[in-house]
Design goal:
Layout (H helix, E strand, L loop, with lengths): L6 H13 L4 H8 L3 H13 L15 H11 L3 E5 L7 H18 L5 E4 L3 H8 L9 E5 L13 H12 L1 E4 L10 H8 L2 H11 L3 E4 L8 H4 L5 H9 L4 E3 L2 E3 L19 H6 L2 E5 L6 H9 L5 E5 H10 L11
Parallel strand pairs: 1-9, 2-3, 2-5, 3-4, 5-8, 8-9
Antiparallel strand pairs: 6-7
Length: 324
């Protein structure tokens, strides 16, 4: 029991460990207790306030890059997260962990929120504050990539947001890509699909990732074959949002792919007041620039390397379409 330990005993152990720098085994010998008991004594010392640990504040953001991006692209909100020497998953985890509170503040209570999938978005939603009284309506913004279920897919991401933030979740229970246009058109007429589309029309916030053709999740999972990839490449595809491939001007690529996709349209995204791009990595520069040029993204959450690459690629302020 913690009350069995005297304050003097706790002060001795804390002094030896925190100030004198002894290891727990040395503290145990000095204080004539077991090493396991040293850990317990240190914990009790913190509980009683004998040990008060202070940590110099760490700012995970790069405000100077945020301001430059905000000014250059006319964005409403920009969050740039430090990544240091982290790579891949660690960068995505940092962006999600430190960006979640800002994204939470951008989602008002009772909002209709369109949600896409993606690895960085997945890390973000896992860190959203639990606020089950928000009464949100979360809407899956694109169909399923294939028949498998991934934690990165829009369905799973949307479910997590609804669970953590509170509210209902509307699933889009169709494939994202349909081989035949007439089948796609028939699915769009189904009542449950029309209900999802009606909610997407009324969304006030969207969380989207920005992909690239070279490592598209559709190609990775076999939905996008080499023939279609070649067609998209010839059409100038530089990026992808919710299954919609963009050219450098931010317009949807004029290929047969766009007539076979079931997802939120680029025009719907342009009408949504707050579209938050959640991105990590410097390999998506052209794709992000296309989304900005097309007036799709209104806010941006990104790592510092990705932010620096955006600024380096646009030495002069680019022209972009006026948002409605």
């Amino acid at each position: 029991m913690s009350h069995d330990y005297s304050d003097d005993q706790l002060r001795l152990v804390a002094r030896l460990y925190y100030i004198d720098g002894l290891g727990q085994s040395d503290v145990a010998r000095f204080a004539r207790v077991s090493q396991a008991k040293v850990s317990r004594l240190l914990a009790v010392a913190r509980e009683r306030g004998i040990v008060r640990i202070t940590v110099a504040d760490y700012d995970p953001r790069r405000p100077e890059l945020e301001e430059r991006l905000r000014a250059r692209f006319g964005l409403r909100q920009v969050v740039v997260i430090k990544c240091g020497d982290r790579l891949g998953t660690d960068v995505r985890r940092s962006v999600g962990h430190f960006g979640a509170a800002v994204v939470d503040a951008l989602i008002p209570p009772r909002a209709i929120v369109a949600v896409a999938g993606g690895r960085t978005i997945h890390e973000l939603v896992l860190q959203l504050p639990v606020a089950r009284s928000k009464a949100l309506t979360i809407v899956q913004a694109m169909g399923s990539v294939d028949s498998t279920t991934s934690i990165y897919d829009a369905h799973e991401v949307g479910r997590v947001v609804a669970q953590r933030q509170g509210g209902s979740f509307l699933a889009l229970n169709t494939p994202a890509f349909i081989p035949e246009r007439r089948t796609r058109d028939a699915l769009l007429e189904l009542p449950q699909v029309r209900r999802v589309q009606e909610h997407l029309d009324r969304a006030s916030v969207a969380l989207v990732g920005v992909g690239v053709l070279g490592n598209s999740v559709f190609a990775e999972r076999g939905t996008l074959d080499a023939t279609m990839a070649g067609e998209l490449e010839r059409a100038g595809a530089v990026g992808e949002i919710c299954g919609r491939f963009l050219n450098a001007a931010g317009a949807e690529c004029a290929t047969s792919w766009r007539h076979r996709v079931i997802s939120i349209s680029l025009e719907q995204l342009r009408r949504i007041p707050e579209v938050i791009g959640v991105v990590s990595g410097a390999d998506r520069t052209a794709a992000i620039l296309a989304a900005l040029q097309g007036g799709i993204l209104k806010s941006l959450l990104i790592d510092e390397l990705g932010a620096a690459a955006l600024l380096a690629a646009t030495p002069a302020a680019p022209r972009r379409k006026t948002r409605p």
